[in-house]
Design brief:
The chain is an alpha+beta fold and about 450 residues long. The chain has helices at about 1-10, 20-30, 35-55, 105-170, 175-210, 225-230, 235-245, 250-270, 315-380, 385-420, 425-435; strands at about 60-75, 85-100, 215-220, 275-285, 295-305, 445-450. It is built from eleven helices and six strands.
Length: about 450
């Protein structure tokens, strides 16, 4: 049932063409990720705790009955006493009703459980945000790993060409062995970059599979101007923090836990107070004891039962102190969550600003690299450039392309972190991201892995 609910909630996303790739991964993650599945059951557990707490304030009805046979030997003790043997049926039926009237401890337990239901619901939303943030981060890191691998391969090709040229020049006596060794070192470094890029890509692939359960995926390349498309409406930290206090699920959950802990203190203190119950019963007995043979009783009873705690061996005072300590913990935890969210907002805003600047610089560098590549290509025909020059220009272009992807990836990660810190990383923000991933032209490349 939960799977059907998740899929129906996100069905509106499926209409987007290229963006359906991200929707498909998100829908799989919602039904596969173990941490989210655990968080999904927590509100159910807390709701059942709430029902159990409420039951302590509601009428308690019980019935009991017995039917049997008895064999009694009755002997008189006085002068001329006789002995009688009696076989008789013994029956007892009773209906009892208890209505709690004053139960302070049960009342505070019921209120505290309702706060924990709210806290678990907020924690579920926080888990949903975390899952989506992890999915977006992994998608972005896969893009960068692929760009890094492409750049590393281009660097290796250029280093190989340079080494070959240097070796020919060494044979001709035009260079020294030192220059050849430097070319070999450059090739080894470029090959190491390939190994590192492949390891990074494999790591991100494994993370993707862990989140979605899918070992094969196609991811569209990020648009070149993604950093400019990401929606951002506010940059004032104080306003954003105020907004986060109203919507951020981690803050809301910590607030509810603090409120529940405060009620637990009241609950512990109320154990010093008396309780009052209304009891009613109706019973029928027939020959129930040896003294009531051949006698029936039909009894109706109503009474008020007052219970006053007098001494508990120090247990009640200990529970009060314990609940006060837990309240202090909850308050400190709330302060810590708020401080963490504020720090995330500041870092994300600064990161977005930096990513925009890096993206602008990377685009300019990429344009210059493309001009150099065209010049090298034309220079080969004109005899003013060599194949090595072209390969080097292609390597420079691949590095510039990698840096552009890095800027977009950083922007996407910081944007995702900001939305999560504000409590806005939900289905609506996923739609906004999908709109930002909408190309004016079909993407020129896609990231794929798995078999």
């Amino acid at each position: 049932m939960r799977t059907a609910l998740v899929l129906s909630t996100l069905a509106a996303f499926a209409s987007a063409p290229a963006q359906a790739m991200l929707f498909d991964a998100w829908s799989k993650a919602l039904v596969h990720d173990a941490d989210y599945q655990i968080a999904l059951t927590e509100p159910d557990i807390k709701r059942e705790d709430h029902v159990q707490a409420r039951s302590q304030l509601l009428p308690q009805i019980s019935a009991q009955g017995s039917r049997g046979k008895a064999d009694a030997k009755i002997t008189g003790t006085g002068p001329g006493g006789t002995t009688l043997n009696r076989n008789y049926d013994a029956n007892l039926w009773a209906l009892q009703i208890r209505q709690p009237l004053v139960r302070p401890s049960a009342f505070y337990a019921w209120r505290s459980s309702s706060k924990r239901v709210a806290a678990s619901t907020a924690q579920l939303q926080d888990a949903r945000q975390t899952l989506l943030a992890n999915l977006i981060e992994t998608m972005a890191q896969l893009q960068f790993a692929e760009a890094s691998l492409t750049a590393a391969k281009a660097s290796v090709l250029g280093a190989q060409q340079k080494l070959s040229f240097t070796q020919r020049q060494l044979s001709a006596g035009n260079v020294t062995r030192r220059e050849t060794a430097e070319a070999q070192t450059a090739l080894a470094l470029a090959q190491q970059q390939i190994a590192e890029a492949m390891l990074d890509k494999s790591t991100q692939e494994a993370t993707w599979t862990e989140i979605t359960g899918d070992a094969q995926v196609m991811l569209p390349a990020l648009p070149a101007d993604l950093v400019e498309r990401l929606p951002l409406t506010e940059s004032d930290v104080s306003k954003l923090l105020s907004q986060a206090k109203d919507k951020q699920p981690a803050i809301l959950a910590a607030m509810e836990e603090r409120n529940a802990a405060a009620l637990d203190v009241q609950r512990a203190r109320s154990e010093h107070l008396p309780t009052l119950d209304l009891n009613a019963s109706r019973s029928f007995s027939e020959s129930n004891t040896e003294n009531t043979i051949d006698t029936t009783f039909l009894t109706n009873r109503v009474d008020l039962q007052l219970t006053l705690p007098l001494f508990s061996g120090g247990a009640t005072q200990a529970r009060v102190r314990q609940s006060q300590a837990r309240l202090a913990q909850a308050e400190a935890r709330l302060d810590g969550v708020i401080a963490k969210v504020q720090s995330q907002i500041v870092r994300a805003l600064a990161g977005l600003t930096s990513a925009r600047q890096q993206a602008a610089s990377a685009r300019a560098t990429l344009e210059a690299a493309e001009v150099s590549l065209r010049s090298a290509t034309l220079g080969i025909t004109a005899g003013t450039a060599t194949v090595a020059d072209k390969i080097n220009a292609e390597a420079d272009r691949a590095v510039a392309e990698r840096d552009k992807v890095r800027a977009n990836v950083q922007a996407l990660l910081f944007w995702s972190q900001l939305q999560q810190a504000l409590g806005l990383l939900d289905d609506d923000r996923l739609r906004a991201l999908m709109n930002a991933l909408e190309w004016k032209e079909p993407p020129t490349q896609a990231i794929s892995f798995g078999t």
